[in-house]
Specification:
Elements lengths: L3 H15 L5 H12 L26 H15 L4 H19 L33 H4 L2 H29 L5
Helix pairs in contact: 1-2, 1-4, 1-6, 2-4, 3-4
């Protein structure tokens, strides 16, 4: 997996792309939704990795992202449901996308429950984050952070700067 920092940054960036005047609720929901699929780490070692509810399984699937986004869009807003749905869906599915770009694991179950196969993208460029806080704060954790900075942080920063300057009122 990419770290919680990388996933959260993508949720933040997607929210800012969607709307210049983002509600704090949507921003928080997007960040949480981008991180949420990693709750399956509690099943690590208890449920086989290749089981639909194993690590990088159902919580990383398109179906899960659709269900989650629908629920949150209906619970948290009445007037901006489409915006909430799209941002939360993209934030949630971004988690699997980032994990499919990592150098570890056995792939991501994007199509669960219809197909239990696990997938990686051809470019596995993000160093996989170690599971566990103590392992994260190590030399391997530093490699993960540097990898995420390169492949997640800098691209997100470029997008955010572009949006900032594009949306900034021009003094004529």
């Amino acid at each position: 997996m990419a770290s919680l920092f990388g996933h959260g940054l993508v949720g933040f960036t997607l929210t800012k792309i969607a709307s210049a005047k983002t509600s704090k609720v949507l921003l928080l929901l997007a960040i949480v939704s981008a991180i949420l699929p990693d709750l399956d780490v509690v099943t690590f070692g208890k449920i086989p990795y290749t089981h639909p509810f194993g690590h990088r399984g159902f919580t990383h699937s398109i179906v899960f992202a659709l269900i989650w986004a629908t629920i949150l869009a209906f619970v948290f807003t009445k007037t901006k449901r489409k915006l909430f749905f799209v941002v939360i869906f993209l934030s949630t599915i971004s988690h699997g996308v980032l994990d499919a770009l990592t150098t570890g694991g056995k792939g991501v179950g994007f199509f669960i429950p219809f197909n239990n196969a696990r997938f990686f993208f051809p470019w596995q460029v993000i160093k996989v984050s170690p599971i566990g806080i103590s392992k994260f704060f190590s030399s391997r954790g530093v490699q993960v952070i540097l990898s995420e900075l390169k492949y997640i942080g800098i691209p997100c920063l470029i997008v955010l700067l572009f949006l900032h300057f594009k949306r900034k009122p021009k003094n004529v």
